[in-house]
Design goal:
Blueprint: H1 15-21, E1 40-41, H2 44-50, E2 64-66, H3 71-84, E3 88-91, E4 107-110, E5 117-121, E6 124-128, H4 133-141, E7 145-146, H5 158-162, H6 171-174, E8 181-188, E9 193-196, H7 202-208, E10 216-224, E11 226-227, E12 231-239, H8 242-254, E13 260-267, E14 273-283, H9 291-295, E15 304-309, H10 310-314, H11 317-327, E16 337-342, H12 346-355, H13 359-362, E17 367-370, E18 373-374, E19 390-397, H14 405-424, E20 428-429, H15 439-446, H16 450-460
Parallel strand pairs: 2-4, 3-4
Antiparallel strand pairs: 1-2, 5-6, 6-10, 7-11, 8-9, 8-10, 12-14, 12-15, 13-14, 13-17, 16-19, 16-20, 17-19, 18-19
Helix pairs in contact: 7-16
Bound molecules: flavin-adenine dinucleotide (FAD).
Flavin-adenine dinucleotide (FAD) binds at residues 53-54, 89-96, 100-101, 111, 129, 151-153, 156-157, 159-161, 163-168, 213, 217-218, 432, 467, 469.
Protein name: FAD-binding protein
Keywords: FAD, Flavoprotein, Oxidoreductase
Cofactor: FAD
Length: 473
């Protein structure tokens, strides 16, 4: 989002004086139309852009957008907004699907200018929260290092994924991106700058990671790094049905054959489904993996094997992004539903749901993500997962060919029905989904961890200004 008209505040005016007199131009009863001391855009083009997200389902128009360049400016904005009684939503890359980074008649805080990579050490990187994972990987790979968990798409911001979890192909080994955080610099809803970690303000640290931005805005993160492998050998194995795919996925998981294990059910050109296991093995050029050993005993032999540099492999989604941007489908509504199933009944639940879908529900480039993972490495308290050792991400990644709004609205209603069914079967929502959730739904979702989030919200955002888009409180 690039605001085309910004007002830069008068230099030399004290923050206190500015905050006290700050009102937005055009606000009724405005005593002094002098804008506050940070970049501010309230033109209709900027506000219209901030009223949209990747989902293109919900539109909520903010009163203004601001783009802080320092954490001090984040403090100023939050204090000022609180005084004005305005809600505030942080925005990273705007890839939410259901208005979660929007603030109706409030302030959208675009973190795109807070994107520096500050420091890289052998075991950690210090980055601003507006940086994308692409920025982070580029910088760390130059030193032969990588974050242990990368999302499949690198165009997401660090703050945006830490607010929800951040799952990737290595999550079975390393947990989620929220499990890789060593320290966070945040600004609370009260406008207080704090550094939190497992040993400092630990309760806030736990409430911020996967806490749906209800207590604080993340400005900077210290993230764990590991040595990056040089190359990835990637295997794409095809199966005739979900049961045989599931059996091989479970075997590969139990035997820990691959560094990355994922899979999907994808529409085929005849209106049916293809069932595929997607796996990767990391290696250095002088020790290539033995395909025969890795694939021994797996049921399917129609495998495709490819070999890529680690960075190229991590960025593989960029090709699909380019295609979807060029055919316009990137800009259509995306009524996604993302959940985690119990390992023990995943096959049964997924089979039932898939039997009721057809390829038009997904679109030709859509997919149903489906793979098992161990959850022992997932330790983020607010990241909810089914209570079993093996859980199964089960995601309806809908990429419709049409921008027809009524179609998307129908899918959103359907998402709710499917979610209710999945929940009854012990499944859990991944909150990046496009569906309406009430405060009670969220309390049920967080279960025993709900008091952690509720109490931290009361303490750190007592006026409840942050991130209204989830309807949590
Ligand atoms: C193409 C695509 C691929 C994806 N792949 C994956 C994947 O592999 N794994 C996965 O886990 N998820 C994936 N997602 C989902 C994605 O992680 C979430 O939607 C994420 O929140 C988007 O990040 P963003 O920077 O675009 O955030 P935005 O949409 O801008 O914001 C999302 C939420 O985070 C909050 N937020 C943003 N920045 C901050 C901050 N600095 N501090 C506090 N809160 C903040 C916002 O207020 C909002 O509530 C994918 C989404 C898309 C569209």
């Amino acid at each position: 989002m690039a605001p085309n008209r910004r007002t830069l505040l008068h230099a030399g005016v004290s923050v206190t004086a500015t905050l006290a007199s700050a009102t937005l131009a055009g606000q009724s009863g405005a005593r002094d139309p002098q804008p506050p001391k940070f970049l501010l855009a309230d033109d209709s083009e900027s506000c219209a852009a901030a009223a949209q997200d990747f989902g293109h389902i919900v539109q909520r128009r903010p009163r203004a957008i601001c783009k802080p360049a320092t954490s001090g400016e984040v403090v100023d904005i939050l204090r000022w907004a609180r005084e004005q009684g305005l809600k505030v939503a942080a925005r990273g890359q705007g890839h939410a699907t259901y208005g979660r980074a929007m603030a109706e008649d409030g302030i959208v805080m675009d973190l795109g200018a807070l994107a520096a990579i500050h420091r890289i050490e052998p075991d950690r990187v210090v980055v601003d929260a507006g940086a994308t994972w692409h920025d982070v990987l580029d910088a760390t790979l130059a030193k032969g290092l990588t974050p242990p968990v990368l999302t499949n798409y690198l165009g997401l911001s660090v703050g945006g994924t830490l607010a929800v979890g951040g799952i990737g192909g290595s999550s079975s080994r390393h947990g989620l991106q929220t499990d890789q955080v060593l320290e966070l610099d945040v600004v609370t809803g009260e406008g207080v700058e704090l550094t939190c970690s497992p040993t400092a303000h630990a309760e806030l640290f736990d409430a911020v990671r996967a806490g749906l931005s209800q207590c604080a805005i993340i400005t900077r993160a210290t993230l764990r790094l590991m040595r990056a492998p040089e190359r990835v050998r990637r295997y794409l194995l095809s199966y005739p049905d979900l049961a045989s795919l599931t059996a091989d996925q479970r075997r590969a998981l139990d035997e820990r054959r691959f560094d990355q294990l994922q899979g999907a059910v994808v529409p085929d050109s005849a209106g049916g489904w293809r069932y595929q296991l997607e796996a990767g093995v990391f290696y250095d050029s002088n020790t290539p993996p033995d395909d025969k050993v890795l694939l021994a005993g797996l049921a399917d032999k129609r495998e495709t094997v490819s070999d890529l540099g680690f960075g190229e492999d991590a960025n593989a989604f960029a090709k699909l992004e380019k295609l979807l941007r060029s055919n316009g489908q990137w800009f259509n509504p995306h009524p996604w539903l993302l959940t985690y199933l119990r390992g023990s009944n995943a096959l049964e639940v997924a089979s039932e749901v898939i039997a009721e879908l057809n390829s038009d529900d997904l679109g030709p480039f859509g997919r149903i993500t489906y793979y098992p993972m161990f959850k022992d490495a997932c330790r983020t308290p607010l990241l909810r997962l089914p209570d079993e050792r093996v859980v199964v991400p089960f995601n309806l990644i809908r990429i419709p060919v049409t921008a027809y709004k009524a179609n998307a609205d129908r899918q959103v209603v359907r998402n709710r029905t499917l979610y209710d069914r999945i929940r009854e079967a012990g499944g859990i929502l991944y909150p990046v989904s496009a569906l309406a959730m009430s405060s009670q739904d969220w309390a049920d979702h967080f279960g025993a961890r709900w008091p952690l989030l509720r109490d931290a919200r009361r303490r750190h955002d007592p006026d409840g200004i942050l991130t209204p888009g989830y309807d949590l409180f």
